[in-house]
């Protein structure tokens, strides 16, 4: 068993509607063993489940409610508990198919947050989803933009033991608090143009690193659609920073993903 696992991608995004079959085929040719398809809002849930049923043993569903929600294509706001209420029955319906709850988290980017009340709403939604993950014995797939420390603190307060912090944008010293708690950090192809991600990888132990693409975002080139096949770019750059072979990076990050998402194991060892 030798290949990559994309621990966080948005394969249900509209950007892939026209050529989804080709995107999946190209990712398999590029050596991917599995894609974890994350949700941002309830409107995507059925689409993600349908994609996972079309590519069983390759696309794995992960349902959750993101800390930022769209009001319209131009307008976004912080999540509120009502957004989660709509999602809960569908999470319950598909709970046996899920490999994780996500994408969940906190996003304290100023344009989405106008008050402490907004932050508290996000916290309440994350706490509830952390409880659901514990009830279902599933890991959390976590977003923490401009909120690295508060997110890690909240996860620890809630007794979360299994979490992936995707595309972490905080300081390496804050990430190390997550490492102490046993959390994993996934690195996207945008590492090649992000000094912050490069510093992060330098500090993180390889045993706490996973790979992701966050497709269609966070690709090697800004504003160009990212695809899961670009996962190798993350691995190659990590191997360069860590001074270890590419094979070692692939082997360790894949084992890390299988530890964090045990439901992948039976499918991948087929």
Automatic annotation (TrEMBL):
Any single Pfam family the record assigns to this protein: TatD_DNase
Tagged with keyword Metal-binding: yes
Family: Belongs to the metallo-dependent hydrolases superfamily. TatD-type hydrolase family.
Binding site for a divalent metal cation 1: 8, 10, 103, 214
CDD domains tied to this protein: TatD_DNAse
Function noted in UniProt: Exhibits 3'-exonuclease activities and apurinic/apyrimidinic (AP) endonuclease (in vitro). Show preferential AP endonuclease activity on double-stranded DNA substrates and 3'- exonuclease activity on single-stranded DNA.
Binding site for a divalent metal cation 2: 143, 166
Lineage: superkingdom: Eukaryota
Gene3D superfamilies: Metal-dependent hydrolases (3.20.20.140)
Matching SUPFAM superfamilies: Metallo-dependent hydrolases
GO molecular function annotations of the record: hydrolase activity, acting on ester bonds; metal ion binding
Name the record gives this protein: TatD DNase domain containing 3
Organism encoding this protein: Anabas testudineus
Keywords (A to Z) from UniProt: Hydrolase, Metal-binding
